[in-house]
Write a structure and sequence with these properties.
Length: 106
């Protein structure tokens, strides 16, 4: 199954695919998360390209698939926020002149 677009409150759009697997009469779902981005192809034309982001496997017996998709998207966006914070923190440290201001002052 496929659902596009899956839109978050902040406006990000994702594509979600579900692959069902049955093992010993138990249904498992693999949830794959994709996002489209505009890129230039080798001829210089701008096209939409689908990028794989992340995936998860859930037990279909006791898990809401909608909740599982929401959780996967939330985890992915949290990962992006953390990555951006780490990159900004590293850049700030690299720009720092090494001087500590107001050290030991009250």
């Amino acid at each position: 199954m496929k659902k596009f677009p899956v839109t978050t409150p902040n406006g990000e759009e994702y594509e979600v695919t579900l692959n069902e697997y049955n093992r010993m009469c138990v249904g498992y779902y693999e949830i794959n998360l994709y996002q489209y981005s505009k890129v230039k192809n080798i001829f210089g034309k701008i096209v939409n390209k689908r990028f794989y982001l992340t995936s998860n496997v859930v037990d279909g017996r006791d898990t809401s698939l909608i909740l599982a998709v929401e959780t996967l998207i939330r985890q992915y966006e949290d990962f992006l926020r953390c990555k951006k914070y780490e990159e900004n923190n590293t850049k700030t440290f690299e720009k720092w002149d090494g001087k500590i201001e107001n050290y030991g002052k009250k």
